[in-house]
Design brief:
Elements (H helix, E strand, L loop, with lengths): L2 H4 L5 H6 L6 E5 L3 H7 L5 E4 L3 H4 L11 H13 L5 E5 L9 H15 L3 E5 L5 H9 L4 E6 L5 H4 L9 H16 L4 E5 L3 H10 L4 E4 L7 E4 L1 H4 L16 H17 L22
Parallel strand pairs: 1-2, 1-8, 2-3, 3-4, 4-5, 5-6, 6-7, 7-8
Bound molecules: 3-methyl-2-oxobutanoic acid (KIV).
Length: about 280
């Protein structure tokens, strides 16, 4: 067993204790190979419902189901040992009320082994957060721009640009914090509001498009790796996976066309009986 495998997984207590100390490093993960690469480098791996858009090509996260989340979370859990794994509760899996939320959250935890769930939490959801936490389900809240509400909002729009909206986002954050969430994603808000929320709540805030004023940061991994032609303003591209993939596939296609792939090194040779057929 490698020393990597012997490391204990982070707990929600470790995450909560990071408030205002060193910033939390968080990324999304949807698959086993990506989880294996990210796990030693991240505090939290989020199996986000962004999987619907990033992997399944959906126009928004609204079409994502609880079964999709379970399948991706199981893959991430199989190849991670160190980071805390949080799974998104998709649209329609918790809004009816606390009982519906508990039924689906307990499925996520029991069938995947994840350590917590994330809920896009308007003020109405605070009682659901409390209900889940009291029953043993760690909850990460999500305030500000809430992707599951884009049909109501008319698209993906930054939040808190009017006094009324600022007050609403702040009260959503306070309500989720008082209800016992262990951490909170703050998405798509201006820096001063992110700072105000971070000062107002006792749990760590994890920003996405919410400035460096938060207690940690999260991005969609494929955005930072440069897989897509377009990324939102708040993304910094740390790689160019798009060029790496297209360059490699173009080279492969050229080699296949020229019959230079496969070559001798990639080809099995006849071996007389008695000799191993594997080399
Ligand atoms: O679904 C997701 O990936 C998210 C993050 C972007 C915070 O909610």
């Amino acid at each position: 067993m490698s020393s990597h495998q012997l490391q204990a997984r982070k707990t929600v207590k470790d995450i909560a204790a990071a408030k205002s100390s060193s910033p939390l490093v968080c990324l999304t993960a949807y698959t086993a190979p990506m989880a294996e690469l990210l796990d030693p480098r991240c505090d939290i791996l989020l199996v986000g419902d962004s999987v619907g858009m990033v992997v399944h090509g959906l126009p928004s996260t609204v079409g994502v189901t609880i079964d999709m989340m379970i399948l991706h979370a199981q893959a991430v859990m199989r190849r991670s040992t160190r980071a805390l794994v949080v799974v998104d509760m998709p649209f329609g899996s918790y809004e009816s009320g606390p009982e519906q939320a508990f039924a689906n959250a307990s499925r996520l935890m029991m069938e995947t082994g994840c350590q917590g769930v994330k809920i896009e939490s308007g003020v109405y959801a605070a009682q659901t957060v409390r209900f889940l936490v009291e029953r043993g389900v760690p909850v990460m809240a999500h305030v500000g721009l809430r992707p599951q509400a884009t049909h109501v909002d008319g698209g993906f729009r930054a939040k808190g640009r009017t006094e009324e909206e600022r007050a609403r986002v702040l009260s959503e954050a306070r309500a989720a914090d008082e209800a016992g969430c262990f951490a909170m994603v703050v998405e798509g808000v201006a820096e001063d509001l992110a700072r105000e929320i971070t000062a107002a709540v006792s749990c760590p805030t994890i920003g996405i498009g919410a400035s460096a004023a938060c207690d940690g940061q999260i991005l969609v991994t494929e955005d930072l790796l440069g897989l897509f032609e377009w990324t939102p303003k708040f993304v910094r591209r740390y790689g160019d996976l798009r060029s790496a993939v297209t360059g490699a596939v173009d080279a492969y296609a050229r080699d296949v066309a020229a019959r230079s792939f496969p070559g001798p090194a990639e080809t099995y040779a006849f071996k007389p009986p008695g000799k191993s057929q594997r080399s």
